[in-house]
Structure formats: structure tokens, C-alpha cells
Design brief:
Elements: E1 2-5, H1 12-23, H2 34-39, H3 41-44, E2 56-62, E3 65-73, E4 91-96, H4 105-119, E5 124-128, E6 146-150
Antiparallel strand pairs: 1-2, 2-3, 3-4, 5-6
Length: 152
């Protein structure tokens, strides 16, 4: 049974693993090693110093084993990812481990994150995706390379 929980300090490595998984979706391509990718300035901003003000997320687990995560973080005009809208709109990252994809885990994580965002009185969240990513099938992210969801 899938359980959704808050990430703890011991989940930082898993968030990095999920961030790498979110970037490594191309069957015909190969990313550099995780250590290099996760240290890259365009990537490290999504996970380094996790727990700073405004950080929010959830982890999905099955039998105590983490299987997916979704989290958001606020950025500034000077430091942000590809989904940047403004300083009041956090950018979201999501990934599910192989073997659990296509089973609704990502949807459950997104629903839990949506509830958290609503509870934090957010107006919207931004997610940047590649339109060729097959893992976005069946989700609203197929609409645009940058989706801004209104929280309501």
C-alpha cells in the first residue's frame, strides 16, 4: 500500500535520486554520472540546502521504501529553473522510480502536493517538462513545456 508522507532530513539523497530520474528519461540518451548532474548549478538549486523557508514536498513509499517524490521551491529572478514565473510561484519537481511508473503514483503525489499548496495559500505552481517525455502521458503536463497550475 502506498503511503504519502512528509520528507525528512534523511530523504535528501532520495530527492537527489528523484531529481536525476526526472532528468534521465530519454531512452536514446545517457546523462553524465549523477554526482556531476546533481552538482550542476541548474540542477543543484532544486535540492541543495533542502528545508529552507518555503520548501515543501511529499514522498511516496511502499512498505517503508521511498518510491517517488514531489517537491516545490521558491526562486528569485536571479536564480531559478526553466519553469520560473515569478517569486510568488514555486517551481515543482516530481519523479517516481522505475517499476512504479504508470500506476498512478505520480498522480497521487501531485494530488497530495496540490493539497499542501492549497493549505499554504499558494495561487499557482509551475512545472517545466519536456513535451517528448513519455512519462507525462495521461497528465496535464502534455499541454505545454511549462505548465502553471492554478491552486483552487
Amino acid at each position: 500500500m502506498i503511503r504519502i508522507r512528509e520528507p525528512g532530513e534523511d530523504d535528501l539523497a532520495f530527492l537527489g535520486e528523484m531529481l536525476y530520474a526526472a532528468l534521465d528519461w530519454r531512452a536514446d540518451g545517457e546523462l553524465p554520472p549523477p554526482e556531476w548532474v546533481l552538482a550542476h548549478p541548474q540542477v543543484s538549486i532544486f535540492h541543495e540546502h533542502w528545508g529552507r523557508e518555503g520548501d515543501n514536498g511529499v514522498v511516496g513509499e511502499d512498505g517503508g521504501r521511498p518510491i517517488g517524490a514531489v517537491w516545490y521551491r521558491f526562486f528569485t529572478e536571479d536564480e531559478h529553473g526553466e519553469g520560473y514565473v515569478d517569486e510568488q510561484t514555486p517551481e515543482l519537481a516530481i519523479a517516481v522510480i522505475a517499476g512504479y511508473r504508470g500506476q498512478g503514483v505520480g498522480r497521487r503525489l501531485m494530488e497530495a502536493m496540490h493539497e499542501r499548496a492549497r493549505g499554504s495559500s499558494l495561487a499557482r505552481i509551475s512545472l517545466s517538462v519536456d513535451l517528448d517525455n513519455p512519462d507525462t502521458r495521461g497528465s496535464d503536463t502534455r499541454i505545454s513545456s511549462r505548465v502553471t497550475a492554478t491552486i483552487g
